[in-house]
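REVIEWER CHECKLIST
Item 1: Sequence provided? yes
Item 2: Single chain? yes
Item 3: Sequence as submitted:
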Amino acid sequence: MDLQELLGEELYKQVIEKAGDNKIAIVSDGSYIPKQKFDDKLEEIKNLKADLETRDSQLEELKKVDAEGLQQRIQELQEENENTKSEYEKQLQQQTFDYSLKDALTAAKVRNPKAAKALLDLESIKLDGDKLLGLEDQLKTIKESDPYLFEEEEEPNTPPQIVAPGNPNGGKGGGESDPFAAKLAKYTNQ
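Item 4: Structure as written out by the authors:
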């Protein structure tokens, strides 16, 4: 039984007029709730239905997604990452090799490292830790064929040349006479 039947047509209209449309709402079980609360609940229900429809459409889209295609894409990305990593490692190795070669050429007293590097067979030189294998033999060969590329080495065993102090010409041939030459000759004879 609803409120209209209970109150009658005329009394029901009076109650509705007094309460107004915004004040109350009558629920199917005959109870009253504020209209705003009723409208809020209706809005909430509409939003929940819209959310359910959105989720259902998302699930349908996911069903359409090719799982094998995703797996293949993941595989491709992993291969790209692996390739990038190996390229980076190669660059680091090449850089380490170049620095080691430059240091070795400097230590060998090469005047122009670029020119000497051009004469080297870089394929036969290998980097082992911080040592370059195969470089020494090539440097010896280049030193023999193109010695101008290397700074001259002074031999440490050569005894120094000792020269007598004074004028090496002994005052002769310069046009000027040495005033001390006569005294020097006198003391040299004694």
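Item 5: Key structural point noted by reviewer: The chain has a mean pLDDT of 79.
Item 6: Recommendation: ____
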